[in-house]
């Protein structure tokens, strides 16, 4: 898929990160940013695209109501924050989507949903039915109860697995960094990488870790991992910021597009997807 074909993507998975939704650690959910991503979803739906949203932000959203100012390091407090924050997060998504006459649903997944045959079939069947019913599924990891899921670490990989699971045409990662750069973006002279023909080409680029917001768990490394999964099974990936998302989805030269040269390979069984679940 080239840039000029992005606007024609039929089935799109969009992942938005915690730092974009909540800003600095300890700040509340930024409802304007939730509304902004919903505007993009509504636009895609109006032109005939099916959209699945993978949203981080449960733990970060739960910090302020619990009186916390930084992401906790102990598992129990992370789970408590996720439990509080997930309800607040999905509530605002539902209200915002309803203003566009769109119905949403909450889907919480764990690693087991990709590695156990019965769980896999159930997750795939549910998502296909929701899409068929014109619902916008909002997916997150089940952080409030899953020990391994929090250690698994990020929703970039989850989004890539979901894209494979449902046979998406396009995976979009929305970050507080607007693209991949050939050096850390703060470095003088760092240049945006407009297009990546092959993820293997990135071995000489300095890939940064977790961002400065203090609320996310991913970083550019996890986004490259997501690109490896998506492009290896024939799914194009776009990396950009919320501010540039709309124009990038219209085909403008914004963000970074990760191209694929292989034929799309929908995951027909849990055995097909299992090799991509483990960390590299």
Labels describing this entry:
two-stranded antiparallel ribbon; alpha/beta; Carbamate kinase; eight-stranded mixed beta sheet; 280 residues
Can you give a write-up of this model?
- The chain has 280 residues and is α/β, with parallel strands linked by helices.
- It has one domain: Acetylglutamate kinase-like (Carbamate kinase, 3-Layer(aba) Sandwich), CATH 3.40.1160.
- The chain contains eleven helices and ten strands.
- The chain has an eight-stranded mixed beta sheet, sandwiched between helices. A two-stranded antiparallel ribbon has the order 6-7.
- Helix 2 packs across helix 4.
- It starts with 10 loop residues before the first strand and ends with a helix.
- Mean pLDDT is 87; it is low at 209-218.
Summarize the structure.
42% of the residues lie in helices and 17% in strands. The protein is α/β, with parallel strands linked by helices.
What's the helix and strand layout?
Elements: E1 11-16, H1 18-22, H2 31-46, E2 50-55, H3 58-63, H4 75-98, E3 103-109, H5 112-115, H6 117-132, E4 135-141, H7 147-152, H8 155-166, E5 170-175, E6 180-181, E7 192-193, E8 195-196, H9 220-232, E9 236-241, H10 242-249, E10 256-258, H11 270-277
Helix pairs in contact: 2-4, 8-9
Percent helix:
40-55%
CATH topology: Carbamate kinase
Fourth-tier CATH superfamily name: Acetylglutamate kinase-like
Rg for CA atoms:
17 Å
Tally of contiguous helical segments: 11
Return residue spans where pLDDT drops below 50 for at least 5 consecutive residues: 209-218
Mind telling me the CATH class?
Answer: Alpha Beta
Major sheet summary line: 8 strands, mixed
Structural domains: how many? 1
What is the spatial order of strands in the main beta sheet? 3-4-2-1-5-9-10-8
Mean pLDDT: 87
The ordered H/E elements are EHHEHHEHHEHHEEEEHEHEH
Q: Given the helix and strand composition, which structural class is it?
A: alpha/beta
Report how far the terminal alpha carbons are from each other. Answer: 26 Å
CATH architecture label: 3-Layer(aba) Sandwich
- How much strand? 15-25%
Instruction: Tell me how many strands there are.
Output: 10
Q: Tell me the overall shape.
A: globular
